Structure formats: C-alpha cells, structure tokens
Amino acid sequence: MKDEAVYNIPIKIAIALSRLLEKNKALQTDTNNENEIADSYNKICLNSGLRKATVSDIFNAKSTNVRASTLVLVLKGMNYRFQDFAIIYDSLNKSDIDLFLKKK
C-alpha cells in the first residue's frame, strides 16, 4: 500500500497542477488578458524562473521527487496558493489516477 501511495504522489501533483492550468486557460479566455494569467508552461517558466523542462516533467509526472520549493514556485508562477493546490490534490481518487495513466 505504501509503495502505491508513493508511486501516486507525482501523478496526483501532475493532475492537480493540470487542473489549475486548465482553470487559468478558462480565465484567460474569459478576461482576454494575455499578460496576467499563466496559461502555458512557457508563462509559468517566465513567472517562476524555472526551466521549461522542469515544469514539463512535473506536469507529466516524470519528476518522481518534486521539491516543495519547486512546487511552490510553480504555484506562484500560476498565481495560486498552496492551499488551492492542496484542495484539488486531496480530492483526487484512483479513477483520476487511472484516467491520467490511460492518457499517457
């Protein structure tokens, strides 16, 4: 059970961040203000100072050990708080993980 929980952590991080990114994309469409909202990996990178490969790896669950500081930078780059992320992360279940894995 513990191994499965550890295996699922980067997947759940990727799903939660992807949902926040989708939320930003929807906001971008609604507000039509390109400069304010990070709606792409590139904008997250510009806002956070992280490399695009790092951001991409996190969003695709390729980074198995995401540092808390890196996660906070991504969230700040997207203009979200850790609490926003945690609410989504905690709500994820096995079917969300299975769907993510099926899409890969």
Please tell me about this protein's structure.
The protein is mainly alpha-helical. It has one domain. The chain has helices at 2-31, 41-48, 52-59, 68-77, 82-91, 94-103. Helix 1 crosses helix 5 (82-91). The longest helix has 30 residues, at 2-31. The model has no long low-confidence stretch (mean pLDDT 91).
Please describe the topology of this protein.
Elements: H1 2-31, H2 41-48, H3 52-59, H4 68-77, H5 82-91, H6 94-103
Helix pairs in contact: 1-5, 1-6, 2-4
Which features characterize this protein?
single chain, 104 residues, 6 helices, globular
Tally of contiguous helical segments: 6
- Specify Rg, calculated over alpha carbons: 14 Å
**SSE pattern:** HHHHHH
Helix content: over 70%
Count up the domains: 1
Q: What is the CA-CA span between the terminal residues?
A: 23 Å
Poorly predicted spans: none
